[in-house]
Amino acid sequence: MLKDTTALIITPEPAWPVRNGWDARNYQLIRAMAGFSKFDVVTLALPHLPINQEETCDNLKARSLTIIRHSPPSYVLTALNSLITSEPMGSLLFHSEELSSTVAALSAKNQYDICLVLGNLCMAKFAAHIQARMHVLDMCDDVALYYDRRARIAGNGPARVFYRKQAKMHRSYLRRESSRFDRILAISELDANTIAQEVDIPVVSVPNCVDSRHFGPAQSGDSMPHNPLLLFVGSMDYWPNRDAVDWFTSSVMPRILHKNPETRLQLVGPDRKSTRLNSS
């Protein structure tokens, strides 16, 4: 396929090597772009994160890779600033004047066909600095729904109020920032439908993909181990993952243990807060 299309892709963190679910989605979308376009990538990165620029650029199939080192402010200060300014926490955490000026210079020089902004609303405002024929935002999931859920399960009143305010901010911010874009991507039909209620542009569902052949279940008749090990890989810092594990351990795991008491569940992934999960 001829690659006459040019694109600029912005990411909140390097999409290679893949370190978490966010990286995995960004990597998939970037590699999909490689099938029909020549593109440049501009990414934020923590100051001390080791990055092999040549290897990363090669794995992403990018024409060029620009790395902007960025130290996000503390979560506590960001939360207070969010309440004062009515700007969502994510947008404040990833604020970077250097990234704004870098993408502005690149777009003025290259006159891109497509601008793809990855990282949901955290990165949406950078589209204002980019000249392109089409602007696309990957929202991934509906962050407002996430905060609605956190508000319902929060253990105290102030936390519930904070999460409700964040959900309201995200919906308001989405309505305002969506005017910069021609398309929005979402990870599921549910997220696409709820996001579409807030904006006046098309919202398209683009789910994450996995090679199901590699992870195929055992064939009928194959013997199962007496003490099977179930594996969950994901960051426990990400609350939807915690919800998923809590649901699995309380609703599914007891049924498995009833049939095979030797079954074990192993969780693999970072958990900076080291908080306790519900157990079966």
Write structural notes for this entry:
With 280 residues, the chain is α/β, with parallel strands linked by helices. The chain contains nine helices and nine strands. The strands form two sheets. It has a seven-stranded parallel sheet, sandwiched between helices. It has a two-stranded parallel ribbon with strand order 8-9. β6, α8 and β7 form a beta-alpha-beta unit. α6 packs antiparallel against α7. The longest helix has 21 residues. The protein is globular.
The H-and-E topology, N to C, reads as EHEHEHHHEEHHEHEEHE
| Cα-to-Cα separation, first versus last residue | 52 Å
Rg is: 21 Å
Largest sheet, in brief, is: 7 strands, parallel
Low-confidence stretches: none
Number of strands: 9
Specify the number of helices.
9
The proportion of residues in beta strands is 15-25%
> In order across it, which strands form the biggest sheet?
3-2-1-4-5-6-7
Structural class from helices and strands?
Answer: alpha/beta
Q: Into which percent range does the helicity of residues fall? A: 40-55%
Shape summary: globular
Mean pLDDT rating:
90
Main attributes?
seven-stranded parallel β-sheet, alpha/beta, two-stranded parallel ribbon, 280 residues
